[in-house]
Specification:
The chain is mostly helical. Helix content is 67%, strand content 0%. The relative contact order is 0.08. Mean pLDDT is 89; it is low at 6-10.
């Protein structure tokens, strides 16, 4: 596939999803392919996320495709979390699902359709992601690990499968290994954001895990740190580590640049777990955060590790 032409359209008038759907001019505008590519690129590089959508390790010809896929995910996420009304979020997510199956002129889909066709992206992954955002609107508690992991099947694993497909990998064996890594990343994010999610009324820690350690829902919602809660978090961290370990065999099967990228994500997720552990599992008191200097160190360690492997090889 020839790389998509990098858009040069100005970003004037581009809006984040929640503002976009409330703006009649944006909703009625006829978007050309170049304008749409410019929009997904702008959305991917002008958001509150604290990570780069495209790593410098990825081949340049893949950058726009990654922006297009990210824009789809960003929109679905914001329609779920940034609207402020559950009924309206569910209506908009249904609309987003309908757009996925239609020949509409929304800029995200105008940009995304050529990527889906050229990179042979599995449509079920996009459908599953929407299902996860819909699920988040109506389910705020999880009884056990089975329910948490069923959520990860839709919320996290499709992202890894899309990344593999974008990079030319379509086999199920790699996809299953990727599922482990993505589930580990999702769990690490949950444990990092326990306090943040409580503010949204959500608790991803399984209820039976909390009960086994004598922790009530009221304790978590009240941000009451205790020995029982720390024991539950310790168990949750161990559980998440298992998924990272199960996903590690994926890395040596990939192209060197993608492998390095995936290893960086894995190391980053495990670093969050290390941070939680080092902080005594006190995630109700403060959100554990990986500082910029620590990210630089993770990058340096990963590159050094790969350099040694190449020398030995």
């Amino acid at each position: 596939m020839a790389p998509l032409k990098q858009p040069s359209s100005p970003s004037r008038g581009f809006l984040q999803p929640a503002a976009f759907v409330a703006d009649a001019a944006s909703m009625e505008r006829r978007w050309s392919l170049q304008e749409s590519l410019a929009y997904t690129r702008w959305l991917s590089t002008n958001h509150y996320e604290n990570f780069h959508v495209v790593s410098f390790l990825l081949p340049k010809e893949l950058h726009q495709d990654f922006y297009n896929v990210y824009a789809f995910c960003r929109w679905a996420d914001d329609l779920g979390d940034e609207i402020g009304d559950t009924a309206e979020s569910l209506r908009l997510l249904r609309w987003w699902r309908e757009l996925l199956a239609s020949e509409n002129g929304h800029p995200v889909f105008v940009a995304l359709r050529p990527t889906i066709a050229a990179r042979r992206l599995p449509m079920v992954c996009f459908e599953n992601l929407i299902s996860a955002f819909e699920h988040d609107q109506v389910v705020m508690r999880y009884r056990n690990w089975d329910e948490v992991m069923a959520y990860c099947v839709n919320s996290a694993n499709p992202v890894g499968r899309l990344v593999l497909a974008l990079c030319g990998y379509h086999d199920e064996a790699r996809a299953v290994l990727s599922d482990n890594t993505c589930s580990g990343l999702q769990l690490a994010n949950f444990w990092q954001d326990v306090r943040v999610d409580v503010g949204k009324g959500r608790i991803y820690l399984p209820q039976d895990l909390l009960m086994r350690h004598g922790v009530s829902e009221a304790d978590v919602l009240g941000l009451r740190q205790s020995a029982g809660f720390e024991a539950a978090m310790r168990e949750a961290v161990v559980y998440a580590r298992g998924f990272f370990e199960a996903g590690l065999p994926l890395i040596p099967t990939l192209d060197a640049r993608l492998a390095l990228d995936i290893e960086l994500f894995s190391r980053g997720g495990m670093a969050i777990l290390d941070k939680i552990e080092a902080g005594g599992y006190q995630v109700l008191d403060a959100r554990p955060k990986i500082e910029k200097s620590e990210r630089v160190w993770l990058l340096a360690k990963t590159i050094l590790s790969w350099s040694k492997k190449r020398i030995v090889g």
